[in-house]
Task: inverse folding
């Protein structure tokens, strides 16, 4: 209770995380692209979604349990994929996987996270999803997918919204590099953040461990060059169809903002679509994800679940996305703020904040069930 009293909101975790992280790590996590209009647009559009409460319902005990792809989850709240997690906070992947297992929510491991499939999958204890940045080489693609199956990941998430690297000007000015350029600037920024530095000494410098088996020499520099040469820029409808043939579990296409694209994903074999603008990190002129969610739900929501991320900072935001038709809501920054603010238990606390906020919103609007939320939109 004391922790919830001291840090009751995701914004509290955000402020504490910023004080504990080196500047270059913070800029990697918190920045968008361009002048960050898309980041603000996500938040502003989310805040514009309001409810009309129905009251005098008597005692309410809102239920948040939900089923997706045959798995029963504690709430429709999941951990979105984030790359370079070990740069944000050493050991972050393990903390996220453990929180997912303990709280019974999905955890999506990125291809370019800093823990391997083989370690993160078992830690998630059946809650693990794997996000695939599309490899250019068929053999590499097939091997990654086979390794994900063997490691116990239940769902494959194909990221569509990174057709090329974005510019991310704040990260450039902060000298975010892969591998990090260890010079006076980086050393000073790290020295004044001793908790982060001690974590690096314990866990080692961040590495793309999932990709290291494909390299002759597993250095960060070699892996970074491999990522640039071998991943991304290849996704097409034919490619998606080939992935569908390789993966026999649930398949999600992440980053969809257009209803025609959403329908074609379903036609190509996707089991769900995740509406997302990559948290405002790819195209500064992108529409807010929450604004296009209803159109996509109207188009395909009777065929497959529609998942959502981008601009989620509270349990109220989770309720807003659910009310607009999402079946499940994912957060990236919110959970990493928690890990950076509190260490190993921080992702647990971030979930508790989001879940408590969702339950409270349901109670305040007179919703006993998640399915009641759409009827309360103003």
Result:
């Amino acid at each position: 209770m004391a922790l919830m009293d001291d840090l009751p909101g995701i914004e509290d975790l955000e402020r504490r995380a910023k004080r504990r992280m080196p500047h270059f790590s913070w800029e990697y996590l918190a920045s968008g692209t361009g002048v960050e209009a898309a980041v603000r647009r996500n938040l502003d559009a989310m805040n514009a979604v309001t409810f009309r409460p129905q009251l005098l319902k008597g005692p309410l005990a809102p239920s948040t349990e939900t089923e997706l792809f045959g798995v029963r989850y504690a709430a429709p709240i999941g951990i979105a994929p984030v790359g370079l997690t070990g740069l944000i906070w050493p050991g972050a992947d393990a903390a996220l996987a453990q929180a997912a297992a303990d709280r019974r929510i999905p955890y999506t491991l990125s291809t370019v996270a800093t823990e391997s499939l083989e370690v993160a999958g078992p830690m998630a204890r059946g809650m693990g999803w794997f996000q695939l940045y599309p490899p250019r080489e068929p053999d590499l693609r097939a091997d990654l997918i086979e390794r994900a199956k063997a490691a116990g990941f239940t769902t494959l998430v194909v990221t569509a919204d990174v057709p090329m690297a974005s510019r991310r000007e704040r990260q450039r000015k902060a000298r975010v590099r892969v591998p990090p350029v260890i010079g006076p600037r980086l050393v000073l920024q790290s020295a004044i953040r001793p908790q982060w530095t001690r974590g690096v000494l314990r866990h080692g410098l961040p590495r793309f461990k999932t990709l290291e088996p494909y390299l002759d020499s597993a250095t960060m520099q070699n892996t970074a060059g491999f990522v640039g040469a071998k991943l991304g820029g290849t996704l097409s409808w034919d490619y998606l169809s080939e992935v569908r043939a390789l993966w026999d579990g649930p398949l999600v296409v992440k980053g969809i903002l257009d209803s025609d694209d959403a329908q074609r994903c379903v036609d190509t074999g996707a089991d769900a679509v995740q509406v997302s603008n990559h948290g405002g990190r790819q195209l500064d002129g992108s529409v807010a994800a929450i604004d296009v969610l209803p159109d996509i739900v109207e188009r395909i929501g009777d065929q497959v679940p529609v998942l959502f991320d981008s601009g989620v900072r509270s349990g109220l935001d989770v309720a807003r996305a659910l009310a607009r038709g999402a079946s499940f809501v994912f957060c990236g920054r919110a959970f990493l703020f928690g890990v950076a603010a509190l260490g190993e238990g921080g992702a647990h606390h971030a979930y508790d904040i989001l879940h408590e906020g969702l339950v409270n919103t349901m109670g305040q609007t007179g919703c006993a069930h998640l399915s009641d939320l759409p009827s309360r939109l103003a």
In short: The radius of gyration is 20 Å. The longest strand covers residues 251-256. The mean pLDDT is 93. The chain is about 45% helix and 10% strand.
